[in-house]
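Entry type: protein chain
Record version: 2
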Amino acid sequence: MKTKSIILFVSVIAILFGCDNQRSNKSIHDGTLYQQIAWMALNDQEKLSITTEWKNARVEEAMYKNKKAYSVVFHTIDDALLGPLVIFIERDSNQVIAKEFKG
């Protein structure tokens, strides 16, 4: 009986830690954190020009001026002329390091 209790306890702990780890990794892998950081870095005029919901912005690993970064790509009403608006976020600090149109 004692052995079954120990096995049950260890199983429950493993499941709880596994679920918590999946939740943490999901926010990194699906880009939600970086989409939020990028959205907050936009001014009102830039936000009005976005043609899709901010949660649908594409997040990719990138390099910006020799720094490891994530790029968050927003499509705007000016895509045909200027290309999409790209926000670069430094990986180590999660700070916005640049905003550029990629045309």
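Comment: The radius of gyration is 20 Å.
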